[in-house]
Specification:
homodimer; alpha/beta; Rossmann fold; Dehydroquinate synthase-like, alpha domain; 2 domains; 6-stranded parallel beta sheet; 3-stranded mixed beta sheet; 14 helices; 10 strands
């Protein structure tokens, strides 16, 4: 199809305190006594939020180690464990940041699809719907709550399971859950949204649908990260909507240079997506002059340290690996630099950029 | 639930020319040889758009007379006819403005629910999902493409079938379909969106989800109706997104005085929703001073005549009917005027307002 037919999440609830409706929301989606599995970011282990999870019957909380971004092997292992322990389950509820939500989506799909999740990295390869899945973000900015992908690092590539079966059946947007996020993490994740707005609004692929969402997300990020005064509940509310709108804007747009370069870092060094984008954005004046200037004001105003020198001491082979991964993201480069992108972003130029990071 | 768990439409495609993907979009939703029914605004009878409808097998085009807004009797008759002629159908595709889309939603539901559609006017009364339903707006502004209602005039009230079964499974947002809309009609329908943004953004019910959508819709309306230069494709694109965003903003907001008063006109006189809102908004300086001033600039700039004197010569009984219908819209009044709205908007005050229209 010329225009993507965009699969929406099934249900959205937005509200400060809406997490407390979770029991009621899940009830009609329980299948007999098959348990609900709550996949929770390990950050919350021992924290108060866990006590508020509405466990019933054989329901289980599993903590997801998201020190590194999700791997296909991790997904396969989780799905196998659940099949072994329960046979079938009612559904998966992912509670955490983008990594946890992506894990939840992937495990849901792998409960009903044969083989390894690595077999489904790509576009529209997933064969069957997963089990019921709900996403509850505790960090704002990734847009994973509304995306039709779940980014996984596999044996040969970092690529999502993009399919109409991938979006959540339900998302619960409760900005109160983001209140206690560490300040740096909140910034990096928020910048995932900001950077992707800059990349998509200045890109060559765009229509009014994605432009409207992107502009709103951008405006909310500006209000949040450049506004006066202390961080308040209203900032969390706005950043959560920025993330949602930024995620929706991806329907008919594409990210650009920061994401393409950051994917290389993430593949080789395990650099997480949010901070990786920031590390790269810091050096992209040539491509996004106004956006990078504003980004630097945000960094300063929010007193964030962006790591530098992370590529020091890498071997030629390692640089080549990053360059290969990055240049493989053809649609991103084309969006940023146009049809002739390969003439503009040569291997040499990209190597020089990586060396500066 | 304290916060509404908002059911989203299943799929959205946005794009100039996306109507031509309809055959491909419908294909996986066809059930054997059961036909797709295309319910088309009678405005398009004999027009070129009808030739582009991808008819297959026993598919049928039915023209919907939307001279007046949809009635429960009209819905019941259409559903009965379809059951009699085909037994079961694959789905209903509504092509037109808000009335046609609401009719399509209602007929879809009545294919699978017993009794009369009048039995389901209210909140969450619908028992079973309808047949597959797709909405294709040819006028922008009502938000009917994303709403969870379908407003119907029944034997005793004008009220929608509000339910989680009501939203479309698919919407096709092709701004090119709105190009040839009559100028006045386009304005009145666009103002449905503008007015409801003013009502909801200035109301007492609102959260960041609805505020974000409402602000974006408002901004797009301002660009469209107050911008410089001739009407272009970009105006149609923006107005279509304004309608979508305005519809989404209703999730956690409420309309206000213009809608409440306009419902009375519509019930008694059959005044259509878009023009009715304009007729009322023209006299609401007291409630929405900035919004009404801007509305009047839009009217002037777009050289629109808003009818006046439409309540001249009505009897006391007729005024009472309108007042009863209007004051029955309690949540709208509360949103506009707060908890004590009944002390503010007395019958006498409302009568005086109707007399001015």
């Amino acid at each position: 199809m010329k225009f993507r037919n965009f699969k929406m999440v099934g249900y959205v609830v937005f509200g400060r305190g809406s997490f407390d409706q979770l029991d009621e929301i899940l009830a009609p989606n329980r299948k007999g006594d098959a348990p609900m599995i709550f996949l929770v970011d390990h950050f919350f282990e021992g924290k108060e939020l866990v006590n508020r999870i509405p466990l019933r019957g054989r329901d289980k909380v599993i903590y997801a180690d998201v020190t590194y971004e999700p791997k296909t092997s991790q997904v396969d292992k989780l799905a196998d464990q659940l099949k072994q322990e329960f046979g079938t389950i009612s559904g998966i509820v992912g509670i955490g940041g983008g990594s946890t939500m992506d894990l939840a989506k992937a495990v849901s799909l792998m409960m009903n699809n044969p083989g390894s999740s690595a077999d489904y990295q790509g576009w529209d390869l997933v064969k069957y719907p997963g089990v019921y899945k709900a996403g509850i973000p505790t960090l704002s900015g990734t847009g994973a709550e509304v995306s039709r992908t779940c980014v996984l690092t596999g044996p040969t590539r970092k690529l999502g399971m993009n399919s109409d079966f991938t979006p959540f059946d339900q998302i619960v947007l409760d900005p109160a859950l983001t209140t206690n996020a560490p300040r740096n993490q909140r910034f990096y994740t928020g910048m995932d949204c900001y950077i992707h707005c800059i990349e998509s609004l200045e890109g060559t692929f765009l229509n009014e649908f994605s432009k409207s969402y992107g502009e709103k997300a951008l405006q909310l990020c500006q209000e949040v990260f450049l506004g006066d005064g202390e961080w308040t509940d209203a900032h969390d509310d706005k950043l959560m909507m920025a993330s949602y709108a930024g995620g929706m804007s991806i329907a008919y747009s594409q990210v650009g240079v920061a994401h393409a370069v950051s994917y290389g870092l993430s593949y080789l060094l395990g650099t997480k997506h949010g901070i990786g984008n920031c590390i790269v954005m810091n050096h992209l004046e040539e491509y996004y002059p106004a956006g990078v200037a504003e980004f630097k004001r945000m960094v300063e105003k929010n007193q964030i340290d962006i790591p530098v020198g992370i590529c020091k001491g890498l071997t030629d082979e390692q640089f080549d690996t990053m360059i290969n991964v990055s240049l493989g993201m053809k649609p991103l480069w084309e969006n940023a630099l146009g049809k002739d992108w390969e003439k503009i972003m040569t291997r040499e130029k990209l190597r020089a950029l990586y060396e500066r990071l």
